[in-house]
User: What shape does this take?
Amino acid sequence: MEKLTEKFYKKLSAVSLTFIRSAMNQINWNARLIGIKGARGVGKTTLLLQYIKINFELDPSVLYVSLDDIWFSENKISDLADRFVKQGGRMLFLDEVHKYPGWSREIKNIYDDYPELKIVFTGSSLLEIINAGADLSRRAIIYKMQGLSFREYLNLECNLNLNIIELKEILDDHLRLSKEIVSVVKPLKHFQDYLTHGYYPYYREISELYHMRLAEVINMILEIELPLLRGVDPLHVNRLKQMLLIITESAPFIPNISKLSERTGINRNTFIIYLNYLYEADILKNLYRDARGITRLQNPEKIYLENSNIAFAIRSLQPDKGSIRETFFANQLSFGHTITFPDQGDFLVNDSLLFEVGGRNKATGQIRNHSGSYIASDDIEFGHKNTIPLWLFGFIY
Assistant: This one.
């Protein structure tokens, strides 16, 4: 335990407080059991260490450990918790819980046996909370962490403090909001950079290797996490890669499941299940006609990549600009809103708001006569009436 504590303090001293994700203020840190899910690289570890540094630096009753530490190859979380509580511990942060077999049952037992202890844990997007051997759904408050929004990217790149804007405010008052933002920063100057490489915070580490590193992360999810956390047959991994490449080259992709199943040699039902796994892993964004009651055997109507950066990491050719626009919109609006596939237009948001996404000259087209319809238009600083700058939807979180 002493070595774990030493490693914790080294990590804590190295973490920077220069930029803090908005997720920090969206989490109810008073809850006894908190789970934070998210894709690799979105900043879960940094968020935990920043929270500790701001609120509990050098407090011996607080401990952070990563469960991929070799210490846990011969020691249990429950033994650590028991010793920690007996020494006055009151808040335990467990990072990368999916790396620890049987994590959910042990956390459940710790939660029940040590009511004085608060626990915060993080894990992969594929983390199963309900079907993980011990149902934590009635005990834990679970938060999903996305990559950087365009607003957060601007704050990080330009040292700004731009605020979150709710969707309703964007729809009702986008012209005023655009003027206020443009007076501080030129969003279009930075928008393409964000779409290319600004979603995962680690883009700042070695920028020229960013896409290579992102491709390696995707490979790790396909080769390690899906077999480990979803039981994907390792023999199917290469077929999964083939399937992902087909989708990436055509996204937004309207799937013909039978043809794709035949092309990849994967059984039709297994193919649909794999599509759902890639959605859960934050690699794909599957669009359905009805977001309620989605099952693992439901065929999506349209498939996007989870975020635009993935397209640049996987594709050898320049991705289609229209596809990148739609991918950005789907990604940003999926935070706190439901997005479904409409009969007309590109996206139906919250079952009532219809959107088409396009360039500066995008016409209303099929949605002209639909009440509550909007155009999300790229390459413009200011909108007019129901035409709104696409970049402004990057301020929702």
User: Anything to note?
Assistant: The mean pLDDT is 92.
